[in-house]
Design brief:
The structure holds 2 protein chains of 2 kinds.
Chain A: E1 3-5, E2 9-13, E3 18-25, E4 29-37, E5 44-49, E6 53-57, E7 60-65, E8 70-75, E9 84-92, E10 97-100, E11 104-109
Parallel strand pairs in A: 2-11
Antiparallel strand pairs in A: 1-3, 3-8, 4-5, 4-9, 6-7, 7-8, 9-10, 9-11
Chain B: E1 4-7, E2 10-13, E3 19-25, E4 31-37, E5 43-50, E6 56-57, E7 68-72, E8 75-80, E9 89-96, E10 101-103, E11 107-111
Parallel strand pairs in B: 2-11
Antiparallel strand pairs in B: 1-3, 3-8, 4-5, 4-9, 5-6, 7-8, 9-10, 9-11
The chains are: A mainly beta, B mainly beta.
Chain lengths: ~110, ~110
């Protein structure tokens, strides 16, 4: 089976940097991806790591350590619009399926 | 990327009835995924729909409750059968790219 753990809630102020961690246990690991979901909306893709290291996409970066079964999403220069839920998801290489973590609610305060 | 359309976007249903959700993709895809998101919860994979074969269900989900059709490479349906209030959720259709998932806007079902 699959198991992913994320903090349930994080609070930060505008302009700050926040890191959302994700630890996972799965068989046939192929990659880790991150999604943002605003209230009432569908999840939208942010970033994907198949190899160890850091991937940067604008204000968002994602990191993966396969040996530690660990990754994180880094959000810089936080804006109020970043207030949302963030989910990590593992891609199961055996069946090309995606399993989601429990999600982290990010609250950005002025 | 892929553009995914789902219908209905929302519905209010009576206990014991069934509802079919449609999912249309703007390109041909091999696999389509159906997820459920209960209020305030994460996304749970219900099943994977492959064209030309029966859907593959995750643990805890059965075909009698969630029958799926996949008649071609751009379309799928998920039926929620004999609904109860516990089925009140957002149901999401998705397809995968290189390493990401693309989602439809979801179908928000409320069962009374």
């Amino acid at each position: 089976g699959q198991s992913l753990e994320q903090p349930s809630e994080v609070t930060a102020v505008e302009g700050a940097i926040v890191q959302i961690n994700c630890t996972y246990q799965t068989s046939g690991f192929y990659g880790l991806s991150w999604y943002q979901q605003h209230d009432g909306g569908a999840p939208t893709f942010l970033s994907y790591n198949a190899l160890d290291g850091l991937e940067e996409t604008g204000r968002f970066s994602s990191f993966l350590s396969r040996s530690d079964s660990y990754g994180y999403l880094l959000l810089q220069e936080l804006q109020m619009k970043d207030s949302a839920s963030y989910f990590c998801a593992v891609r199961d290489g055996n069946f090309n399926k995606f399993y989601f973590g429990s999600g982290t609610k990010l609250n950005v305060k002025p | 990327s892929a553009v995914i359309s789902q219908k209905p976007s929302r519905d209010i249903c009576q206990r014991g009835t069934s509802l079919t959700i449609q999912c249309q993709v703007d390109s041909q895809v091999t696999m389509m995924f159906w997820y459920r998101q209960q209020p305030g919860q994460s996304l749970t994979l219900i099943a994977t729909a492959n064209q030309g074969s029966e859907a593959t269900y995750e643990s805890g989900f059965v075909i009698d409750k969630f029958p799926i059709s996949r008649p071609n490479l751009t379309f799928s349906t998920l039926t929620v059968s004999n609904m109860s209030p516990e089925d009140s959720s957002i149901y999401l259709c998705s397809v995968s790219g290189t390493g990401e998932l693309f989602f439809g806007e979801g179908s928000r079902l409320t069962v009374l």
